[in-house]
Amino acid sequence: MLVASVLQTSTGFGFSLMATPFLLLLFEPKEAVQINLLLSLVISVALITKIKKDIDKGILKRFVVGSAVGLPIGITVFLTADISMLKLGIGIIILLLTVLLILKLLMDQTKARDYAVGGLSGILTTSIGMPGPPLLLYFSGTDTQKEKLRGTTLAFYLFIYSMSLLVQILFAGTTDTIWISSGYALPLVFLGLFLGQILFKRINQQLFRIFTYVILLFTGVYMLLEGLSSIAASH
């Protein structure tokens, strides 16, 4: 939890990626997803005043509109689809796109792409609790400055995590374990917020980009292995 919150605070990404694999060792999938959503929401609320000046409000609005379409699709996937196959497919796509980014494939930022990325993020949030990969791939591909990337992403998380948590509770239910366990984790999250702010000031743009690629590669490999192991276990 501590490492995950440091990563999220310093880069705008990574809490779900670091926390979810370990949460799944201790909790049922529904509980792991909701604890992840709750604690990520706390980080976004705590940082919102510090990142206000870095937010690109136009992109943020389009992400929000796009995600509103993606959220109901995501919860439908969570309740009905084979999550193992979904993770496997997403893992492969993330790895392929990350390799293209490392090879310097860049794209232009457009309004249509903003809406599409918001939609994908919405689907991934309510289905597997990970909104970050589409945003991270998109911002890396458009070569966005680290301040704008972190600010816009964390502001978007404030909306997406609130809505996802609400959708999860309404359609999948919740438990005392989720709220009590999240409460136990809060001191570590707040310590991570403090350390992450210090780290952010010391990272230059080049190092930030390397961090981004490492997070993406780790996400892709994790989801690939997670999907494969779940499929193997079911057979």
Detailed description of the structure:
This protein is mainly α and 235 residues long. It has one domain (2-234). 86% of the residues lie in helices and 0% in strands. It has helices at residues 2-11, 15-26, 29-51, 57-80, 83-102, 111-128, 132-141, 146-172, 176-202, 205-234. α3 runs antiparallel to α8 and α5 (83-102) runs parallel beside α7. The longest helix is centred in the C-terminal third of the chain and has 30 residues, at 205-234. The two termini are 32 Å apart. Belongs to the 4-toluene sulfonate uptake permease (TSUP) (TC 2.A.102) family. It is found in: Cell membrane.
Percentage of helical residues? Answer: over 70%
Series of H and E elements: HHHHHHHHHH
Whole-number mean pLDDT: 86
Structural class by secondary-structure content: mainly alpha
Low-confidence stretches: none
CA radius of gyration is 16 Å
User: Hey, roughly how much beta strand do the residues contain?
Assistant: under 5%
Taken together, the total number of domains comes to 1
Dominant shape: globular
Q: Work out the number of β strands.
A: 0
> Biggest β-sheet: count, sense, barrel?
none
Task: Supply the number of helical segments.
Answer: 10
Terminus-to-terminus distance? 32 Å
